[in-house]
Write a structure and sequence with these properties.
This protein has 250 residues and is of the alpha+beta class. Helix content is 32%, strand content 32%. It is built from 10 helices and 10 strands. Helix 1 (6-20) crosses helix 3 (43-55) and helix 2 (32-39) packs across helix 3.
Amino acid sequence: MVQMKPWVEIAEELRREIGRGVYGPGERLPSGTDLMSRFGVARQTVQNAMDQLRAEGLVSSVAGRGWFVAERKPIVRLARNRLSKAERTEGRGTFLSDAAAGKWQPAVTVEVRREQAREDVRSYLGLAADQDHEVVVRDRVMRADGEVVQLAVSYLPAEIAGGTRLEEADTGPGGAYARLEELGFELTHFTEVVSARSPRPREAELLRLPLGFPVLQVIRVAFAGDRAVEVNYMTMGGERYQLVYQIDAG
């Protein structure tokens, strides 16, 4: 039988106690000193266990006060609902659709710029590899109830988005996809590629994750017929999000 590392055992025991209600939502957990004494381990071992529970979304830390059982609910991302034309008609972009469904307060900080498309961006957008292509970049930091939960960077061909409201921070009701359709690019389908990886330093700082703890990356390409009109790289804390997909069986 494989012997678990001490920090794994500590995390498992605290996880069970949280699950049984020994420590309820918002309640303070035993101090590091108390846990060191209880389990007979060094401080770093306790820290490793708490980092694991934090990555799972079970606990959060308050500077100078200690560790507390998290009160945060997971953010449910309903892929089919959030990308529907009905949501755009109601004046909601994808992130606002998530907020309406989850009943939390959204806030988005946007930086818009132009740059030459990278090789991967050219590939997703179907742009010729042997030519330079300028793209409009929409770089967003997204918050739920004041906490950063998602980073998203969209790339749109400048020949489509340049000089339009897509090049403004506020794209207006329905978001960027509504503006694309007003420009004559009727959206027909999307593709999404989902993967997990370690966060980059800026991502870890904004999402308040220790380096090495995983993030989810979703790369979505929006199509109008056969033409790709946007590629969006989304990064989110793996402990906060539930990605829900409805797939027809027929």
